[in-house]
Amino acid sequence: MSATPLFDQWLARLIGQGSVPLPEALRDWQLKKLRETVRYAAERSPHYRELYTTLPSEIRSSILKGEFPHSFAEMACLPFSSSEDIEQDWKRFLCVSQDAVARMVTLRTSGTMTGAGGKRLAFTEEELGRTADFFAVGMSVLLCPGDRVLVLLPGADRPCGVADLLIRSLPFLGKGISLDPEIPLETRLTPEKQQYSSGAEGFAVNPGAQEEEFIAELKRVRPQALVAAPSQLSRLLDAPSVTAVVRAVGLRSLLASSEVLPHSLRCRLEHEWGCQVFDHYGMTESAYGGAVECPFHDGMHIREADIFLECVDAVSGELLPLGQEGEIVLTTLTRQAMPLIRYRTGDYAALLPGPCRCGSPLRRLGSVCGRIVRKADGVSIIRPKKGGSRADSVANSD
Fold this sequence. Notes:
Elements: H1 6-15, H2 22-44, H3 46-51, H4 57-64, H5 83-88, E1 103-107, E2 119-123, H6 125-138, E3 148-151, H7 162-169, H8 185-188, H9 191-194, E4 201-204, H10 211-221, E5 225-228, H11 230-237, H12 240-249, E6 253-256, H13 263-273, E7 276-281, E8 291-293, E9 300-302, E10 307-312, E11 326-332, E12 343-349, E13 351-352, E14 364-365, E15 370-375, E16 378-382
Helix pairs in contact: 1-2, 6-7, 10-12, 11-13
């Protein structure tokens, strides 16, 4: 388990940081990637090509020259995209041939269905490899080499589903995975081929596991760590027999993922199960991984080499200063199949200024404290219940 600015080391590797301090190097990297992404989407995505026809001619010209944006603030000139846009016609977001798609995910959402069958999101092998790389580094903050991890998230039975990527990244703790697109993903996820293995192992549990099945897996695996959604944790926490076994096997750490983690649930888990709780932010739109806490629990460190986050007023859409809560807006930086630009996530949180108590000078993402719901009569913030359900976040994949 690392208490150092591990994510800063990882980001420095990805962006090829030289002698320039990381904050400045990361700023330059992100602006370069934003220009590439906006131009790429405007040229290849029917959705963005049409969306940007309403922009002033000087901005459209700058986009096609690969010169926009000149600053992060200029991103506010671009219109938002939304979940409904993808539901209406996901193919309009696709920028590669379907032959280049390695994984297609369908999200069955609640409250936003248009009859089109939900959202579909496409990923290339390279994009999935970058996610596995993030998992390999992110899990290092709560694991030690040789640890066993029990994973309750969906997707273990589907190649490159979220649980499958997580489990297969564990042998690479802290070291990262090759991002060379010329190397097949299967090879990149085989430790023996890279002559490195942390010895950490992951074991999948049926996401709907009831008390008896979960207890049986706890006794069989005797894990040091658990990865699960808050709604799953809340259900299991209410079973006294589960708590007794968790205490007996010596569970040390827990990663809550895929849903909002209420503070009250975090406190109960730490008190009753006696383990350290880490929060993770991610959604399928971000290729699963997004941000994760370090051992200081001072906000979640963002996957800044792959995603750019903004925080805007949920009603006006205006940019908000660091530390103020609003809607989190996502722009992908390295996606080829379906780049997303200024995508309204519906998550209500704040972006926090640095430094973190771990020493990182970079901004972080604060805890998600609600979901934004838009209706004809206005905008409301839905605060999570004890289980923290977040309907958009856990994918039903095919």
